[in-house]
């Protein structure tokens, strides 16, 4: 007989494995909620220090609002920082080398703050004088951030592009 019990088991097993491999990308995308509801803004930009050789240390605080019913996390935030229309630089806040349970948790229906400390050499002289003349206040400078955050849930991840001003 051509279809013996062993061949039927083998054909069934191969069919299940091929089905899982084909459907796995679909299964993984099901675990990720609609990321258009997730909102990334800039909560604050603080000046930590200005060194003698004009290197400014800034602390950028992102606020991520997760209105979905799932807990999410982020592995990386890439962003470009502009001050009064002048490019300050491209920066990255990365958690890629940290296990999932150590990354910032974006819990359901909550706001989460993530801070990124950056160093930037010699800002525009007008911006530096504004900072020095206003007791290191950054609120009179128009800050613009264009970025991309990798949002993860379960087994899947997707990029979230954002624009923010402060």
Automatic annotation (TrEMBL):
Keywords: Membrane, Transmembrane, Transmembrane helix. The chain crosses the membrane at residues 7-28. It comes from the Archaea. This is Late embryogenesis abundant protein. It comes from Candidatus Nitrosocosmicus oleophilus.
